[in-house]
Design a protein that fits this description.
mainly beta
């Protein structure tokens, strides 16, 4: 299993970013996939999950209405569209399959 995140960066409050996670080594289309994040000095926080089939999704209350998780099974890629970003969204973002995470991508929200 290999997960490689990208798309992080520095953005001003209210801005947007789109994270990507390239997956390999397993049948991506059959996998429930998640995004989790870790802010400085804090533990790991679940952000969102997308399931297979109809693509049912679920979000943490802290990001609901601002973040959108999606997947492209043809490209074995998971996405996280993040809008109206806030300083509290600053964290390293990881995609997760089961107990496996990638190396993460840093998102910093600051003016």
């Amino acid at each position: 299993v290999r997960l490689v995140e990208s798309g992080g960066g520095l953005v001003q409050p209210g801005g947007s970013l789109r994270l990507s996670c390239a997956a390999s080594g397993f049948t991506f289309s059959n996998a429930a996939m998640s995004w989790v994040r870790q802010a400085p000095g804090k533990g790991l926080e679940w952000v969102s999950t997308i399931y297979t089939g109809a693509g049912w999704t679920n979000y943490a209350d802290s990001v609901k209405g601002r973040f959108t998780i999606s997947r492209d099974n043809a490209k074995n890629t998971l996405y996280l569209q993040m809008n109206n970003l806030k300083p509290d969204d600053t964290a390293v973002y990881y995609c997760r399959y089961g107990d496996t995470r990638g190396q993460g991508t840093q998102v910093t929200v600051a003016s």
